Amino acid sequence: MKLLTAIQKAIPENKAFDSAHLKLLYSNLHPETREEVVYRRNGKSVDKIIEFDIQTNSKIKTTHYDYFNDKKIRSIDEFDRKTGRKLRTINYVLYKSVDEFDPETGKKLRTINFNVKDENKISSIQEYDQETGKITTISIYKRDGRTVSIIKKIDPVTEKVTSWVNNTNTSFKAAEPAKTVKPYITTRCYDNIKIMDNRDKEDIAKLIDNLYTNNLKFENI
Questions:
Q1: Are the C-beta atoms of 48 and 60 separated by less than 8 Å?
Q2: To the nearest whole number, what is the mean pLDDT of the chain?
Q3: Which of 49, 53, 73, 196 is spaced 20 to 30 Å from 142 by Cα?
Q4: 3 to each of 8, 10, 29, how far by Cα in Å?
């Protein structure tokens, strides 16, 4: 702004000069930050704008723009001014949602999803397990965007719902898996029958042949 003032003083008042373009160039700049514009390969449309802290040179914000419309914001990443670590990401794709991160580990802590029609009303909140990164709790809100309707607890390993509670004090807890019971085995009458070997079969056949050859009757034996 000091540069703009100096330029305006240097220009004679009677000289026609429109300084509106200078105001646009400098009015958005914060004295403690600097911006870096990153263009796409075509060199025309803006991909993202990165904002840095002048004193620490740490990245404090990155604004990503839509691929087909560089006037439309796709998402915004916000970083800690001192450490430069990501604190949260605001997404505007389909609906507004906010991802919050642990500044120490960089892992996602929770996601706040807002109503499709009203981005000021919360529709749900997802909380994440720090070891696996998977969802452990889902809180679903009513239409007012403030009152919790249902809370679901999820096992991060199996990813199955273990319990849920709604605002009518109705609760549910998943049943423990049934113990494995060994099936009852019954012995059938023919299971113990032994198969006759070939040698025994041949001996019996010879005996029968001899009986018929000698015209012997079985009742006489």
A1: no
A2: 75
A3: 73
A4: 9, 11, 12
